[in-house]
Amino acid sequence: MSEKMLDKIINNTKRQIEFDKAQISESVLKRSLSYVSHEPINIFNLLNKTGIHIIAEYKRKSPSLGKISDDMLSDVIKDYEIGGASAISVLTNAAFDGKIADMEEARQLTKLPILRKEFIIDEYQIYQARTYGADFVLLIVRILSDKQLNNFLDLIDSLGISALVEVESPNDLNRALKAGATIIGVNNRDLKSFVIDKKQGIEIAKIIPSDRAIVIESGIAARADLDPFLDAGFHNFLIGSSLMKAQNKIDALNNLILKTNCR
After folding, report:
1. What Cα–Cα distance (Å) separates residue 6 from each residue in 118, 124, 146, 186?
2. CATH of the domain at 147
3. Staple partner for 176: which of 38, 107, 150, 181, CB 3.0–4.6 Å?
């Protein structure tokens, strides 16, 4: 994903937000929160439990890979549940053929915690996430100012949900820690070049304070890809493309989780 592509995604996201606001105003969205029955799960506590935890992602395509899968959301979530996923990530951005309706459908399909994976640039998207049943949302440090990051974290906390704060450099990490992020996602993929560097990911993860929950993102295609992170003491992973490509998603998750826990 080039810088130009990232800018395009952000600009398209802004247009989508304006469209969504025209359909349901922010004030109406806020009022609807009182009717939300789902009680969010504490993600920090979940990720700090012993054993490997996989946040299994549903996405139809990516800007770099093109179409990934035509599998139905309902079928994928069922397989992820059976396979032992700890949580479900739902990509709601149009660049990945996602939509907010996927978030709503996912909540109806599973009791597992759900991550709204999105390019969050507006408070409206956070209210959407809570309204449609998300337990946590992704915040990407790279695309946010310090003021946005702080304000979004405060809002997320006030709504009783959690933030997975994604970093891809030591500078990102410093900003995330300064803002008070407690769940840090270390992205092995550079969003500008789209190059995956797992060694750099490990080095960044190693300097995160031990009182934070850490999630490793991107570049996990096989069981062997987990080894360097497990050896370094990390056990939470967000995995998307490789699971979506798998013909048997249950077996793919079992190979990751069961073999790892038997190490």
Report:
1. 13, 20, 19, 18
2. 3.20.20.70
3. 181
Length of the chain: 263
List, by residue number, the catalytic residues: 57, 59, 117, 166, 187, 217-218
Residue 133 lies in a domain: yes
39: in domain = no
Strands 61-62 and 236-239 come out as unpaired
SS3 readout for 82-136: HHCCCEEEEECCHHHCCCHHHHHHHHHHCCCCEEEECCCCCHHHHHHHHHCCCCE
In a domain, residue 70? The reply is yes
pLDDT band of 163, cuts 50, 70, 90 = very high
Count Cβ neighbours within 10 Å for each residue of 229-244 and write b for 16 or more, e otherwise: beeeebbbbbbbbbbb
Cα distance between residue 118 and residue 96, in whole Å: 10
Domain housing 56: 3-34+44-261
pLDDT tens-digit series, residues 115-138: 999 999 999 999 999 999 999 999
